[in-house]
Amino acid sequence: MGRARRAKLTAAGFLPIACMMIGSGHHAHAQSESDGLVLEEIVVTGSRIMRRDATTVGPITTLTSADIAAAAPLSVGQLLQQLPGAGSSLNSNGTAGVSHGSSSINLRNLGTGGTANRVLVLVDGNRWVNGAGTRGFRDFVDLNTIPMGIVDRVEILKDGASAIYGSDAIAGVVNIHTKKTFDGADAKVMGGVTSRGDARSLSAETTLGRVFGQGSFLISASYVDQQPIFIEDRKLTTISLAGPTAAGPLGYYRLPGVTTGTNRLVKIAGAAGTSPSDFRLWTAADSVNAETGTYAVGPSERTGLFGRLTWDFLPTVRGKIEGMYNKRLSDQKFSPLVSRIRGSDGMTMPANHPFNPFGRAFSGSTFDIQRQLVEMDFRYNEQNVKTQRYAAGLEGEFDLGTEWRWDLFYSYARNDATFTSRNQIDQDKLALAIGPNDRCVANSCVPINIFGTLTPAMIDYIRYNARDENGTRQQQAAFNISGSLFDLPAGELGMAAGVEYRKEEGYDDPDPIVSATPRFQTFRRTTSAPRDPTRGQYDLWESYLELNVPLLADLPLVQSLDLSAAARYSDYSTFGDTITTKLGLSYRPISDLMIRSTFSEGFRAPSISELYAGARQTNLPATDPCNGGGAGRPGCTGVPTTYNQRDFNNGGILSTVGGNVLLQPETADTWSVGTAWTPDMVDGLTVTADWYQIKIDNAISSLGSQRLLNYCANTGERCELVRRAATGEITNLQDGPVNLNRIEVEGIDLTVRQQFETEFGNIEAVIDAAHLIRYVNFITNEDGSITVDDRTGRSDVLRESYPRWKGTGSLRWSDGPWEAGWRGRYIGKTTEVVGNPVNGGHIPAIIYQDVQLGYEFESIGVNLTLGVDNIFNVQPPASSVNQGANYDINTYDIRGTFLYSRLSARF
């Protein structure tokens, strides 16, 4: 049966139910005004079944509005990245241009932001649109597109949930709940600055709402401005651990016939560069710190607007419409570019060039000029990202002897971004400007003085400012129903079911200069990485069923024993269909102790960029292992023994570099066992502990052209990506992502919460810890063998850390109008075992400590809060793997002590 036919049948099956619900809801009200028009039940993240409490079989962390206020975050990303279960994530602090102003959440270190998106982000239970604004788009939710001002609370499910929510819910689910009905007005203003006087921030938000008769409305506006930190203003980042750069404003010059071996020349300071006597041999003392004046933390400005209108059409049928707009402006600052003039790229300089002081022609592999073009000024990457989301829905309830709820939902969302790169070099024009005079004249070029000072006209000729456009689109529609089928001896049999449709689109239009074909030779046209435009889309239909079955209740040592089960059928326009399931068991021997266990199947569908990334055909240097027939290798079957690669591919193998439409979904199995203890003997105490294990197969990664050829030849697998003619000639090599590797993660989460009521006020103490037992990548080699990459307790990967322990602790006190709090954030030690590690490869554990004091002026409805983050000015540990920034920018905070004040008022 075709996809369209299955979708129509699934939708048709739900139409009678929808009609019945609307009619039944009205009829139920006619019978009695007391017929449960408002159910005192809730939906908890990880299940779609209505419940009368927040207890579920899955481990959930909830950040309440009080928790959020105590953390005083400037963004949703900053809030979530401080969780113990969060791994190295893209953020706005210390990104040095890597995140391009975006922010992500990386649960269990299983990937997000350029590697793989294995955590699902929901807003009010519905999937959020993927972000935009990087160079080329990435398939993950940019948390900076969600205004902080609309957030009421956040639930984090630390368990697999693809059977409930679909793709990406492997490491867990983040569900951001927005403010619902609100009657009145409130406003908040917060300002902060580091103890060094930089990274100044200002945030303001206001909410206006009204509940009236049959409906309500809510409008929220927010603004955030974050100023930069310069690298020279932090000792750790002042000079790269790799040392200063050899190529400064005076440059270095390897000139065949003038220099020999590794010798280089440097221009004498103050000299004009018009005579050989203006140069001397380069020494290490000529190296410079070229990064001074660049950002360690880039600035960002965000504006958000959110509105919601609800209306009761019938006593049991309600509707809502909502809209959201968010704009982000961000930029990163880099040192002026270093010219790349290399004979190995085909560049030449004639003896009669007007600015050649040596009177010799230069070419070949030993011709190499590298000089920082300070005349061009600093480089900037600038992002202008606009996010829009519009949604409408109906919801209601009815009674068929048991209580039922239903909802119908549709949303359209889009991200549109402009990415501008300023002060880049057009390599083609640079080659013309230093090349033969006749070619320069023919192309109306401006010769440049690479040995002396570049004039504004020279700079303007070789400079270009690239403007990339990229974005995403998302449409989704869903119909859900939840209620009790009937009573069993141990309780109600709960059920939830639904059908969903979703369409995802993405595009990336690089600047025409970036994607253009070189005018001559084979060197890269610009200093921006070349890529071709990307266009792609896919859609899918899904249906799911979830049951909660009470097995036993009210027996000796069995207060309750419940079984939960869920299954989801997903049909994608790309790879086809898949079914995922989840089973859970919840056992309460006594009222204050619950033991829980789950098993779930998960999947991650290939993203638009993985499927459709702009393809570019190029000749790549690679050796064909099937040359001469391949000597019996499994993947060389059918290749004639007379095949000689030199006869066909001597200039390189024609390869298509880009996405791979043949990709299949990643799959995952997740197990968890845990307990939740709330002893009656100790008032206010809650202890939870959960063990988890996640195994991911078919993890998407890239081999590269040579490794792909070798892997096909040696194993006979992935050979569909290597196309050959009958002669054995490789006619095309699809060099893109493939399903290849495996990942296994195991750990324990522990939370202890104690609340006290004393004569001195209310006290709450919380300890939240995450212990990583094992994190292993199983990497497939080109001969089919497996390399075990154990990252547990290590920091050997750029911008990724895998400490065995992470944790937070907090202590909050309140008494009348006063409140105070302390919070500690612990990141455990790791080791580096690559290169020449600093501190013997030991990355020490650190603790950030924050304090806060607040007072409420009750008579005027105003609250004043003063706080200090990182009160002891703890700096990140140095890391040799992360040379340049000198620390893991996705794990640690470079700001140091940060002081802030917040004023809020309600009217």
Helices, strands, pairings?
Elements: H1 3-31, E1 60-63, H2 65-71, H3 76-80, E2 119-123, E3 126-127, E4 151-157, H4 162-165, E5 172-178, E6 184-194, E7 201-212, E8 215-226, E9 229-230, E10 252-254, E11 265-267, E12 279-281, E13 295-297, E14 300-314, E15 317-334, E16 341-342, E17 368-370, E18 379-399, E19 403-425, H5 427-434, H6 437-442, H7 456-462, E20 463-488, E21 491-509, H8 512-515, E22 534-555, E23 558-572, E24 576-590, E25 593-604, H9 608-612, E26 616-620, H10 645-649, E27 653-657, E28 666-677, E29 685-702, H11 705-715, E30 722-724, E31 730-735, E32 737-758, E33 761-780, E34 786-790, E35 805-815, E36 818-827, E37 830-831, E38 842-843, E39 846-857, E40 862-869, E41 898-906
CA gyration radius, whole angstroms: 31 Å
Q: What is the mean pLDDT?
A: 88
Q: How much beta, percentage-wise?
A: over 45%
Count of helical regions? 11
Major sheet details: 22 strands, antiparallel, barrel
- Could you tell me the number of beta strands? 41
Shape: globular
Helix fraction, binned, reads 10-25%
- Helix/strand structural class: mainly beta
- List low-pLDDT spans: 1-39
CA-CA gap between termini = 59 Å
Membrane topology: Multi-pass membrane protein
Family: Belongs to the TonB-dependent receptor family.
Protein name: TonB-dependent receptor
Organism: Niveispirillum lacus
